[in-house]
From TrEMBL:
Transmembrane segments: none annotated. Belongs to the DSD1 family. This is D-TA family PLP-dependent enzyme. It comes from the Bacteria. Keywords: Lyase. Coiled coil: none annotated. InterPro entries: Ala_racemase_N, D-amino_acid_metab_enzyme, D-ser_dehydrat-like_dom, D-ser_dehydrat-like_sf, PLP-binding_barrel. Residues 253-348 form the D-serine dehydratase-like domain. Gene3D superfamilies: Alanine racemase, D-serine dehydratase-like domain. Signal peptide: none annotated. Pfam families: Ala_racemase_N, D-ser_dehydrat.
Amino acid sequence: MYKLDTPSLLLDYQKLLTNINEISSFAKEQAIAYRPHIKTHKSIKIAQLQMEAGAVGITTAKIGEAEVMAAGGIKDILIAYPISSPDKIKRLVKLLDQGVHIKIAVDHIEALSYLQRELEHTPFTLEVWIKVNSGLNRCGVEPGKEAVILAKEIMTHSKLKLGGIFTHAGHSYAAKTMDEIERIGHYEGRSVVESAKECEKEGIRIPVRSVGSTPTYKRAGKVAGVTEIRPGNAVFFDAIQAGLDVTSIDRCALTLLASVVGVYKDRVIFDTGSKTLCLDKGAHGNQTVTGFGHVIGHPEIVIERLSEEHGVAVLSQETTLKLNDKVQIIPNHACTVVNQFDEYVVHENGRVIDVWKVHARGMVK
C-alpha cells in the first residue's frame, strides 16, 4: 500500500463494512428503514453495499447524484433538496421515465405550482416529502402548523403525492457535549413525528417519518413514530465525528496517503494541501479538531496550515519522519475530501484489494 503514489484516497474495507453494518443493525433493532445519504461517498459500489446490508433506497443532495446512482441500478432515491427550476424538473421527469422511484423535498407552496406545471403533460405523479426545520434554520417549514398548511396544499395538486415528512439536524455538529447532541436528536425525531400527527388529525396520511444526521441518528431513530434514518458520514466517519465524541478515531475508514516533501527543524511538509484535505475544522461555528487532519501514529505532528498543494505541520517534539516517508491522514471532513478524488484505493490488512470509482464526484447540479 505504501508503494502507491501520493496523494491517494485510501478506504479500509473492513472498517467500511463494520460502519455499514452498525447502521443497518440499529435500523433493524428499531424496526425502522435505513436510507443512507450518499453525498459522503458518491460511489455506486458503496451504495450497492449499503443496499445489500438492508437499505430501502438512498438519499442524495442533488439531481446529478441521483442520475448517477440511477444509472448504476439504484431505483429508490430521495433527493433531499428543494427543487423548483423548470430545467431541473424536466430532469426529474426523465428519471421517472426510467422507472426510478424518485421523491423530492418541498418546503414552499410556490414550488408546488412549478412542479405541477411541468408534470401536467406527463403520465407521472411525483412523490414529495415535506422538509421541516428541526433547528438547523436552513431549509424547511416550521414543525406543526406550517407542515399541515403545506400538506393541505400538496393535496390540491393532481400531479403530486405526499409520501413523508423529514428533517436534518445538521446543527448537531455545533454541539459542545454528547448531552446536547442527545437533546438535538430527541427534538429532531419529535419535530417529524408531531408534524405527521398533526397532518393525520386533518385526514392526511404520512407514511414516512424520516430523520438524518450522523451525530443524532441513534437518538432520533429511537423516537416513537420515526420510521426511517438517513445518516451519511457514518459510512466512513472522520476527525470531526471523533472530535464530537460520536466515534473513536480508530473507526475512521477513510484516510489520505501523503508523502513527506520537506523536513525542517520546526516543521514537516506533506503533499496534501487544501485541494486534498480541504479547509474544514468543524461545522456551524464549532471547531472540533486541532489542525487539518489527524496524522496516524505521529502525535508529535499537527497540520497547522494548508496552502493549495502543501500541508504544513508543526512539531511538538522531534519526529522520526524523513524525506519521502509516507503517512496516513484521517481527514477532518470526509465528504468534502472524497469530492476531490476520482477513485478510492481499497485496502484490507495493509494490502490493496481493489480500486473503486467516485462515480458522482462533482455532481453539484
